[in-house]
Amino acid sequence: MTDCPRCGTQTPSGATTCPDCGARVEGATQSFEPVVASASPTPMDVEIDEGPVLVVRKGAEVGERFYVDRERLTVGRDPRSDIFLNDVTVSRHHAVLGNVAGEVEIEDAGSLNGTYVNGVCVDKALLASGDVVQIGMFQMVFLAGKGA
Question: How many CB atoms lie under 10 A from the CB of residue 5?
């Protein structure tokens, strides 16, 4: 059973809306099969002047860019995440991106489905330009930017 975030009514497992008030109920993270990275990791012919950046190539909002412009960014389904990925295959607190001295590292935060870099499930990985990052159903290409 899950409690409705609006009215507090207990809702049956698997319910997407509250039977009393109709509010959307966030369920547990769902499992999925990861997508195998294709031979060509670039999502499109994109020239990135500023970086580093993750560009969504599969999932909602294809083409959306998430700039890694701080030392630490959280990634997850929690709306308070720095990078909010709204899909049930993404854990609420899925991963953390670290940007230190121009190098970007991704670390899984104990997610259910794992964090993948170039098709390999990783606990932690240093990202290079062109790497494909998969978090839930979202597949993103990491671009370091010019001069990287």
Answer: 12
Could you tell me if 24 and 17 are in contact, meaning their C-beta atoms sit under 8 angstroms apart?
Answer: yes
How many Å apart are CA 117 and CA 134, to the nearest integer?
6
Using one digit for the tens of pLDDT, what is the confidence trace for 89-134? 999 999 999 998 889 999 999 999 999 999 999 999 999 999 999 9
CA–centroid distance for 43 within its chain: 16
Report the distance separating Cα 146 and Cα 47, nearest Å. 9
Q: CB neighbours of 146 closer than 8 A, spacing ≥ 6?
A: 48, 49, 51
What is d(CA 148, CA 90) in angstroms, rounded to the nearest whole number?
29
Alpha-carbon radius of gyration of the chain: 17
- Give the integer Cα–Cα distance in Å for 93 and 112: 10
Q: How many residues does the chain have?
A: 148
**CA-CA distance, 34 to 45, in Å (whole number)?**
24
CA dihedral 144, 105, 78, 90 (to 10 degrees): 90
